Structures are given as C-alpha cells and as structure tokens.
Amino acid sequence: MSAHPVHQVEAELARLAVIGNKPAWQYEGTLAIARELARHGATGRRRSRGNCALANHLKRVAGTGDIEVTRYEVLVGPEGDEQIISLVEPPGDLCILRYFVCDFDDQPQRFRRLRATA
Question: What are the angstrom distances between the C-alpha of 51 and each of 2, 36, 45, 77, 88?
C-alpha cells in the first residue's frame, strides 16, 4: 500500500528544502531547487496555482492532481477537504521553498535560462 499523498508531499518538500538549504546564500539555494526540478522535467506557469513547476512536480511525486502551491502554503487534496502544509511556519525548514516560489516561479525567464545552462 502506498503512503498517503500528504505524507509523500511532505517528504518531497523536506528533500527539496535540504537541497535548497545547503548553499550559504538564499539565491543559490533557490537556484539549486530550480535545477533539481528542471532535472526532473518540472515545468509550469506561476500564475496558475495548480500549474506551477513545484505543483506539477509534487503532483507527479504524490500521484494525485489535487495539489496547489501558493506563496505561503501547499494545499493537498480536493477543494474543501484539502490539508495545508505551511511554507512559513516554524521551525522554518521549508522557508527556502517559499523563496523559490517567489523568486523562480514568478520569473519564468530564470527557469528558461536554467534549461539553457544545464
């Protein structure tokens, strides 16, 4: 039996946060997350909460289409019954993912540049 989608999403967010928190500078951390998502083929538009690169990656990992990413949280599950994973609550390990959502998903040219340099 597979794990619940929320647990899979939490585990993947934790993995991405570890990747993003390794570099000394926030920008390098968000760049490391962008490279990891690009390596897995994640694409998407930020203007659509359910179709940004991070949401599309998490959907593929969890095997569900009911995932949306905002600047502050990840919503997992059908509307009205979703579970919320905060990107800004203490202990703050996931804050680097919030910076990624703001810095990279809102700047699609940066993601294209990553593909050109990868």
Answer: 24, 17, 6, 15, 21
pLDDT digit string, tens, across residues 2-35:
678 999 999 999 999 999 999 888 888 888 998 8
Token reading at 70: 């905002």
For residue 101, count CB atoms less than 10 angstroms from its CB and return exposed for 0-12, middle for 13-18, buried for 19 or more.
buried
Tell the residue number behind the tokens 């039996």, with chain if given. 1
In the chain, domain spans:
5-117
Lowest mean pLDDT among 6-10, 44-48, 58-62: 44-48
The Cα–Cα gap between 106 and 101 comes to 7
